[in-house]
Amino acid sequence: MAEYPNDVIRTIEERSSARVFTSEPLTEEERAILTSAALRAPNGGKMSKFSLIDVRDQAIKDRLAVLCDNQPFVAKAPGVYVILADFDRWFRLFRKYVGTLGVHINYPHEDEILFSIVDAALAAENMAIAGESIGVGSCFIADVVTHHDEIREMLNLPQYVMPIMLGIFGHPVSKPKQRSARIGVSVVHRDRYEPLRDDEMLDMIDPLIPRGADGAPVMTPEDYVTRYYIRRLGSWLSFERTNSVRAMFRDWLKSPFGDE
Fold first, then answer.
1. Does pLDDT of 210 surpass 60?
2. 104: left (phi over 0), alpha (psi -120 to 50) or beta
3. How is residue 210 annotated by DSSP?
């Protein structure tokens, strides 16, 4: 068993994504721990530019499972949270109070999209680690960014709220196998960014390539990279996802005053 300096590091190092859960529901105490951890995450300016939708309506869970690349386990999961970048609260406050000063009110642009996404992502990670520490497994699904129009209507999302990911939580049927495969190079650079050489790129993916019982790779580096290209950039889902994200950004960047 690996030695760690404390339980926090152990939780981080030994966590793996879980997708198969028992039918045991999350308790209200467990849910409170998850959401409290989200609120304790670092965030810009103490603004907490994120929101969570705790989805308990089975019809919504069923539809999310379909819209998120047809993943049935989403519908069965005890805990489904839509994790949102959210600037709506603060913009409403700005309009209510700054607007009374008679000054022109700016609306949030690309920078606040980025900052709100960061807040949401940090909250999600806190939820994952907190859940792991109490025996609640999790995984995250980014495909919630597809089908923008339908998801926005179904979840009643205002202009300055956009879905970033689904957080799926539950009690794992068994402890997920710890992932041993990590990219085979350091992602840490010193002082300035140093692009990898071609041979280092091969070293990077070597630990990720599936292997048979004899330890030999079951596919070539070319096949492995091609599979990921199709998955990330060359499939119908990637095109659908791209169009949906563009629509999300376009709607956010519209003037709320109807003057553009």
1. yes
2. beta
3. -
